[in-house]
Amino acid sequence: MNVITVNHLSVTGKQNRIVNDISFKIQEGEWFALVGQSGSGKSMTASAIGQLLSPNLQATGEIKYAGSNLLALTPSEMRKIRGKHLSYIFQDYQGSFTPFLTIGRHFEEYQQRHLDLSKTARKQQAKQALVSVGLSEDIYTRYPVQLSGGQLQRVSIAIALLLKPDLLIADEPTAALDSVTSFKVLELLSQLQAETGCAILFITHDLRHVRKYADRIAVMKDGVIIETGNKDQILNHPKNPYTELLINSSPSLRTMLSLSIEGVIR
Ligand SMILES: Nc1ncnc2c1ncn2[C@@H]1O[C@H](COP(=O)(O)OP(=O)(O)OP(=O)(O)O)[C@@H](O)[C@H]1O
Ligand SMILES: [Mg+2]
Prior knowledge:
This protein is α/β, with parallel strands linked by helices and 266 residues long. It folds into two domains: 1-85 and 168-182 and 193-266, P-loop containing nucleotide triphosphate hydrolases (Rossmann fold, 3-Layer(aba) Sandwich); 97-162, no CATH class. Helix content is 38%, strand content 25%. It contains ten helices and ten strands. Strand 7, helix 6 and strand 8 form a beta-alpha-beta unit. Helix 3 (103-114) packs across helix 4 and helix 4 (119-132) crosses helix 5 (149-161).
């Protein structure tokens, strides 16, 4: 079954069309990668799904989720879905944290908006979530600046998956991390996906990550999806010359192989 169905989505600015009539579906529990060069419209697509576009941009078409068109929801209807059924992690995860609030307070914000739990239960749930992403419970009382980039991105993942969303949108989630930490964070994401059954819309430049984790891939160029298919089809038998170019110009698989030899990844 499809978690989300995007039909003829366009995102338009004052002067130009940034995303141009794209359609794709993401199935339950699937890891769906959206790839393409910088500026091709990947983040615009991700933002349009959760009504997170800047006010100067307009999205048209249809994004079907649980019988509703997400583009037609009011902001308050959308807030009930975002964070609960549909959540995000971003490359700029540091920007998602408020420096003067503890990690615990960041959890509280989501829990109070979407759950009816006692303070003690909220605290226990948050601490369990921290442990589930490989962090210690006492991070709950720390401030964002007291954590490393990798730890903070793990906290983002814990918060994003706290309410067991149907779809996690991960926009370049590891682009600001070193390659060893990136692989560890993605391994964690893959493990949590298997546990929670959520689907992932994974946006990346790094085809090594796509090769390792994706089930299906869509390739975007100049606001248009030029090719969609399963991983083997796209990476080993691309039909579009641009897809082939993208594959040939991606970073070598050497790092991936050496990490696997060192036992960092399997
Ligand atoms: N607020 C805005 N108003 C008008 N155009 C914008 C706005 N934000 C981004 N754009 C343009 O939209 C296009 C697509 O941007 P988008 O951020 O989706 O690219 P991307 O594929 O995510 O690239 P990257 O891989 O670098 O993150 C770019 O040409 C960008 O300059
Ligand atoms: Mg982007």
